[in-house]
Amino acid sequence: MSAVITSVEQLVAAVYVSSAIKPMQQDEILDLLRFARVNNEKLDITGMLLYRDGNFLQVLEGPSAAVDALIQKIKRDPRHKDVILMSRKRIEERQFGDWRMAFRNMSKESMVEAGYSPFLEPSNDDDELGEESQLVFRLLRRFKEDMR
C-alpha cells in the first residue's frame, strides 16, 4: 500500500550520481530494478535510473522523509561509491509519476527492459518541458555525454 501524501509541499525531487564499485552485469541490474520497484511502490517513490558503464544517475520523487531515507540507504549500499547529491528540492508535482523506477541502460550494449523510458530520445523537445524540468533534462543529457 502506498503512503498517503497529505500536502503537496511534502513532495521532493532529488537527483544523485554515483559509481558502482564494479561494472554491473545485466542480471545484477535487473535484480536491482526489481527490488527498487517493489520498495518504491511501498514508499510512494517514483523516478528514473540511468546506468552507463558503471555510473548511475537517478531521479527520486516522493515524500521528503522517504526520499531522504532512501538516499541515506543508497550512500551505505556497498555496491555504490562516490554518491553525490546533485539536487534536492520541493516540487508541486511529479515528473515521473507513472514510473516506480524507469530505467535506461546507456552502455554501448544496451538491453531492453520493461519500464524503459524514451525520455532521452532525440525526438523529445526541450520546449515541451516545464522550466523546472529543463534543468533536470540538461543534467540527464550531460550524464549521457560526459561520464565520470
Task: Kindly describe this structure.
With 148 residues, the chain is α+β, with helices and mostly antiparallel strands. It has one domain: Alpha-Beta Plaits, CATH 3.30.70. A 5-stranded mixed β-sheet has the order 4-1-3-2-5, with helices on both faces. The radius of gyration is 15 Å and the shape is globular.
Feature tags:
Alpha-Beta Plaits; alpha+beta; five-stranded mixed beta sheet; 31% helix; 28% strand; 3 helices; 148 residues
Task: Produce the secondary structure layout.
Layout: E1 11-20, H1 26-43, E2 46-52, E3 55-63, H2 64-76, E4 80-90, E5 102-105, H3 131-145
Parallel strand pairs: 2-5
Antiparallel strand pairs: 1-3, 1-4, 2-3
CATH class: Alpha Beta
Please state the CA-atom Rg, rounded to the nearest Å: 15 Å
Binned, the helix content reads: 25-40%
Widest sheet, order of strands: 4-1-3-2-5
| Termini separation | 37 Å
Query: How many DSSP H or I helices?
Result: 3
CATH topology-level fold name: Alpha-Beta Plaits
Taking pLDDT < 50 over at least 5 consecutive residues as the criterion, the unreliable ranges are: 4-9, 110-114
The domain count comes to 1
- Shape by Cα distribution: globular
Beta-strand content: 25-35%
Q: Total number of β-strand segments?
A: 5
User: Which structural category fits the helices and strands?
Assistant: alpha+beta
The mean pLDDT is 76
